[in-house]
Specification:
heterodimer, A: alpha/beta, Rossmann fold, 7-stranded mixed sheet, 7 strands, B: alpha+beta, Beta-Lactamase, Helix Hairpins, 2 domains, 5-stranded antiparallel sheet, rod-shaped
């Protein structure tokens, strides 16, 4: 199977240095549109959809392969190998930050540095570790997702954005945001929120940057500190942005910190 | 026909059969109507700049951060999201829809929000979902049963049949008069037909499993 097609890989930009953006749970590569624009001139930009998300080839979804995070890690590795990328700067949001970390642990020679946006190595509270969720919270989230499958369908019909000052959003956006198959979404939710890769953090050999938001239920401050403490070469940056998706709610701030980090090295 | 008067609009706003709110781009409540205030009850401590998510269940708050916020940022609208709102004395199910209000000279961009109570509709949905889960479980059970039957058939029935076929072929080498030979030939044919039929049944059963 053609990997670039399977993962709906999009390449843009005029530079040599590759920045690869990995979307988080519940989204697809469209979430990077505001942030990546700023880097078009000087970098080669790669975005993609994990199998089962966005406009990836849904027939490639295999319940067994994607029953753990390793299946998603393999997506990243497959893309890098198929397209022969080197020296990759990988920007991962939420669970994809850890997917990137695991890919870099497996093949450090493919990567230059990692950037974690609202990351968490483990979402469930565990003794002194405050991940942010109790097990019943995950069940509550899955129940919400079950109730809103039809809600997603209402977004499948193309909708006029009504953004007179952002016409490009109306043109480019496909209507497929969050239009994942609900069974796949459910399984991806379980895989994501039952992840525990805390033990892998100390083994990372590449430099990394964490962009930490305020008031993020899914990646609270305590988790940002935990990652900094347990990951060699990790730098933690506190942003003013709130919530779980700063690349959407505060793209300028994300761009600023990305720029500083990428360009100073 | 003349448009509504200011008094009329105020009345519509506060007496609507739905909650009407405006939220800032960051999800803070800027305004809410009397209907919504009534739903929240007398102990309502909601005030301007409270987070809308503060009135949601934990699952709802997670869903808001994970899905609704990104959808609003990317699409500007969300329609008919099912949420559960917690009040001072209970909770209720609602549908949440939001549409964008562009920035003006006096006001940053924000969202108009409509909240409908959907208690009865929710019961219907829950019933539908239950029925679906039951139907799925029944299908799964039937599959298991078919699998068991096919297995039983293939082993329990075929063993004695294999014996019969074997005995019939032993008879081949025996000395038989004409009558016996005819009976032997008919036995052989019937046994073979039975074997064929059983194989057909088992194959059909495996395809249906």
């Amino acid at each position: 199977m053609n990997i670039a097609e399977r993962n709906n890989v999009r390449i843009s930009g005029h530079g040599e240095q590759i920045i690869m953006f990995a979307h988080g749970f519940g989204c697809d590569q469209n979430v990077w549109r505001h942030v990546k624009k700023e880097f078009e001139a000087d970098f080669k930009l790669v975005t993609f959809d994990f199998v089962g998300s966005g406009q990836s080839d849904i027939s490639a979804y295999d319940r067994e392969r994607y029953a753990t995070l390793d299946g998603y890690v393999q997506d990243v590795i497959d893309i890098i190998q198929a397209l022969q990328f080197t020296n990759v700067i990988l920007v991962g949001h939420s669970v994809s930050a850890m997917i990137g970390m695991l890919a870099a642990k497996k093949y450090p020679e493919y990567f230059k540095q990692l950037i974690f946006v609202s990351p968490s190595p483990c979402y469930i509270n565990d003794g002194d570790y405050h991940g942010g969720l109790d097990p019943e919270d995950l069940e509550a989230l899955l129940t919400m997702m079950d109730s809103n499958y039809l809600g997603w369908s209402s977004l499948l019909a193309p909708q006029v954005m009504g953004n007179a000052d952002r016409p490009e959003l109306g043109e480019e956006l496909t209507a497929n945001f969050c239009a994942t198959d609900p069974d796949i979404a459910r399984q991806f939710a379980r895989v994501t929120f039952l992840t525990d890769v805390r033990d892998d953090l100390p083994k990372l050999t590449l430099p990394s940057l964490t962009l930490q938001c305020n008031d993020d239920m899914l990646a609270p401050l305590s988790v940002g500190y935990y990652i900094e403490e347990h990951t060699p070469g990790n730098q933690l940056v506190m942003m003013n942005a709130t919530g779980h998706c700063p690349h959407l709610s505060a793209p300028d701030e994300v761009i600023l910190f990305l720029n500083n980090y990428i360009c100073k090295s | 026909m003349e448009g509504p008067t200011i008094e009329h609009l105020k009345s519509i706003y506060d007496n609507s059969p739905c909650g009407l709110l405006t939220l800032s781009a960051h999800g803070e409540i800027l305004t809410y109507n009397q209907t919504f205030a009534n739903w929240l009850g007398d102990d309502n401590t909601l005030k301007r700049h409270s987070r809308f998510t503060s009135v949601l269940s934990k699952g709802g708050r997670l869903y808001f951060q994970l899905f609704i916020e990104p959808m609003l940022r990317l699409h500007g609208v969300v329609n008919e999201i099912s949420l559960e709102i917690e009040t001072g004395n209970g909770k209720f199910d609602c549908l949440f829809s939001a549409s964008p209000v562009p920035a003006t000279a006096d006001q940053s961009a924000c969202y108009n929000v409509v909240v409908f109570k959907v208690t009865d509709r929710k019961k219907y949905e829950a019933e539908l979902l239950n029925q679906k889960l039951l139907a799925d479980a029944n299908t799964q059970n039937s599959r298991e049963q078919l699998r068991t039957v096919a297995f039983a058939q293939s082993h329990l029935v075929r063993a004695p049949l294999a014996n019969i076929l074997g005995l019939i072929s032993i008879m081949d080498v025996l000395d038989m008069d004409n009558d016996l030979q005819q009976i032997h030939a008919m036995l052989h044919e019937s046994a073979n037909n039975l074997d064929k039929e059983i194989r057909t049944i088992i194959t059909a059963a495996s395809h249906n499993i």
